[in-house]
Amino acid sequence: MPTYLLTWNPKQWQWVDLAECAAKLKAQGYLDDRWGVGRNRKIGKGDRLFLMRLGREPRGICGSGWATSTVFESQHWNENKAALFVELRWDMLLDAERESVLPLEILRHGLLATMKWDSRISGVRIPDEVAKELERVWASL
């Protein structure tokens, strides 16, 4: 199954209601949202998504979910231009200020080390074999 890495840098965008979003997900088991996917137009409904927190510590995987739409254009959150997004359903969302994320240090070992995790571009495809290992490690978190 195609798996993609979404990115979030709190130095560029403060997710002010992240704690509330994480609590809502825990209460109902999922959370519907949308996320920017850079220039990737290939993400499809049902594709697996992981969210990487960049920019400041703790850096690492802090969320996972599933695409619930294909890629579409909409207004960029910070600029007066169009950007590409995908609708998604988070199945896990961690508030890194209060919860442990899957740290970048772990992602830099073994098979996981073959992926460039600190990419600034959202929507990068994770190779299938790396995605399988990521699912295994993520589930143990």
Structure described in brief:
Helix content is 20%, strand content 33%.
Overall description:
- The protein is an alpha+beta fold and 141 residues long.
- The chain contains three helices and eight strands.
- Helices cover 20% and strands 33% of the residues.
- Strands 1, 2, 3, 4, 5, 6, 7 and 8 form an eight-stranded mixed beta sheet that branches.
- The longest helix is centred in the last third of the chain and has 13 residues.
- It is globular, with a radius of gyration of 14 Å.
Spans of at least 5 consecutive residues whose pLDDT stays below 50 are none
Largest sheet descriptor = 8 strands, mixed
What percent strand?
A: 25-35%
Question: How many individual helices?
Answer: 3
Rg over CA atoms, rounded to whole Å, is 14 Å
Arithmetic mean pLDDT: 94
- Rough shape? globular
Structural class by secondary-structure content: alpha+beta
The level of helicity is 10-25%
Distance between the termini: 21 Å
Number of strands: 8
* Order of H and E elements: EHEEEEEEHEH
